[in-house]
Amino acid sequence: MKISIIIPTYNRAPFLAEALESVIKQTVFPTLFKNQEVEILVIDDGSEDNTRKIVEQFKPYTTYLRQPHRGVSAARNHGLQRARGELIAYLDSDDLWLPEKLAVQLSFMKAFPRCMVCYTEEIWLRHGRRVNPKKKHQKYSGWIFDKVLPLCLLSLSSAMFRRQLFEEIGFFDESLPAAEDYDLGIRAAHRYPIHLIERPLIIKRGGHSDQLSHKYWGMDRFRIKALQKALSLQLTPEQERLVRLEIIHKAQILVQGFQKRGKNKEAIYYKQLIQEQTAKLKN
Q1: Strand partners, 129
Q2: In CATH, what is the architecture of 3-215?
Q3: Do the bridges between strand 87-90 and strand 160-162 make them parallel or antiparallel, or are there none, so unpaired?
Q4: Does residue 201 contact residue 101 with C-beta atoms inside 8 Å?
Q5: Which DSSP symbol is given to 134?
Q6: Burial 150-175, CB ≥16 within 10 A → b, else e
Q7: Using omega within 30 degrees of 0 as the cis cutoff, is the peptide bond preceding 60 cis?
Q8: 3: part of which helix (H) or strand (E)?
Q9: Residue spans per domain, the chain
Q10: Of the candidates 172, 174, 130, 168, which has an alpha carbon nearest to the alpha carbon of residue 154?
Q11: Over the stretch 78-108, which tens digit does the pLDDT of each residue have?
Q12: Rounded distance between C-alpha atoms, residue 257 and residue 89, angstroms
């Protein structure tokens, strides 16, 4: 059972070296590599630093694929298109895997062949210091469609997918400059149960200035787009109700934010969206 490890990156050479090191140091990596059951695809999204040199230091384990700067969703999709594995594992270039990550998830996926996606608990670092996730970040297992609507629970660096999942629900939405993981999580949780391995097996590093959450103000703009897309899925009446309520909630936050910034046109748009969704709920 071959696994494709996909690492999208953009101008993160120092982080990337550590991320790659964490993959090479997986307990099962030597055996997988010897048996040609693993590949590491690094998708360079048009970096201007020494990303290529970093990747070359990890030959013969890595395959370097470069594209013009098109965003993280396009990079993820590029890797998926080139991947040859039945199993897919993403690693963001600023995150790290703990040594047992692959071994635990491979064992789980082999034990449960009908499982399409599993994910793990995480250790969080902010500016190099460990922080505890808030209660709202609690992870769940099973049919968790209602749980993935408020925020992104499916951390891609912690997940392992069967390729079949992407063939069924589609790839990453390249029209979204951010929150593409949130969008994918909604589609995945609608289609299949998502299984949680209750053990921290990755380190998520945050606080650096190039994170998309820092680059784009009002991330809920993109989450609302994902929720609007979700309305086209074959939802139950209760699922549809939850999606519309979440659109209203996120739109209310954006209205306040735009008003504070004096952006009345944008505030009016989201006020109208609230009215539309409220009317739909009453029908």
Answers
A1: 126
A2: Alpha-Beta Complex (3.90)
A3: antiparallel
A4: yes
A5: P
A6: eebbbbbbbbbbbbebbeebebbbee
A7: yes
A8: strand 3-9
A9: 3-215, 235-282
A10: 172
A11: 999 999 999 999 999 999 999 999 999 999 9
A12: 36
Q: Which residues of 196-226 are buried (b: 16+ CB within 10 A; e: fewer)?
A: bbeeebbbbbeeeeeeeeeeeebbbbbbbbb
Amino acid present at 58: F
Q: Which tokens go with 23?
A: 């993959």
Give the C-alpha separation, 124 to 147, whole Å: 20
8: buried, middle or exposed (CB in 10 Å: 19+, 13-18, 0-12)? Answer: buried
DSSP H helices in the chain = 13-24, 29-34, 51-56, 72-82, 101-111, 163-169, 180-191, 212-215, 220-230, 237-260, 264-282
pLDDT in tens, 229-272: 999 999 999 999 999 999 999 999 999 999 999 999 999 999 99
Output the six-digit token pair for 111.
Answer: 């034990």
